[in-house]
Amino acid sequence: MRTCLALLLAAAALFAAPAQAQERSVPYWASIRASELNMRVGPSRDYKVSWVYRRPGLPVKVVRVMEGWRLIRDPDGEQGWVVARLLSPDRTAMVIGEGPLEMRDAPDASSGLRWRLAPGVVGLLDDCSEGWCAFEVDGREGWVRQDRLFGAQEP
């Protein structure tokens, strides 16, 4: 009985956390949770699909909230409505700008070079400070310039 109650509470916490994280004040950052996500022109399944995302982890800015729907802005500046449960509160970021972005050993341009990341690469975002962010791409960790990441700025 005690084990069942503990499992039930743990399951409830797992499902409540994403929903709770999506109830923040706007704007805020989120990422795509689903392997396929329809962007619609309005906040209902009755509205036309304007775009289909097939990139889990892609960062988006949530700019408006309406009854289970979120108005998002993607890295290209496109806006549309998506179902809230298909977004994750996980912070990700995408490399933007021209040319490769250097991932460094430390938050300093003179520290050792770890990797070069092409524009469009998406990774997990950690703390940002003084223009640098801790960033992880496929298990590779390092520091990158904040101004080259969509999703690393204040919303």
Tell me the β content.
Answer: 35-45%
Q: How many individual β-strands?
A: 14
Tally the helices: 1
Major sheet size, sense and barrel closure: 5 strands, antiparallel
CATH fold-level topology of the largest domain: SH3 type barrels
- Strand and helix order: HEEEEEEEEEEEEEE
- The level 1 CATH classification of the largest domain is Mainly Beta
Helix content: 10-25%
Unreliable segments (pLDDT under 50, ≥5 consecutive)?
A: 1-22
**Would you identify the CATH architecture of the largest domain?**
Roll
C-alpha end-to-end distance: 45 Å
Helix/strand class: mainly beta
Query: What is the approximate shape?
Result: elongated
Could you say how many structural domains there are in total?
2
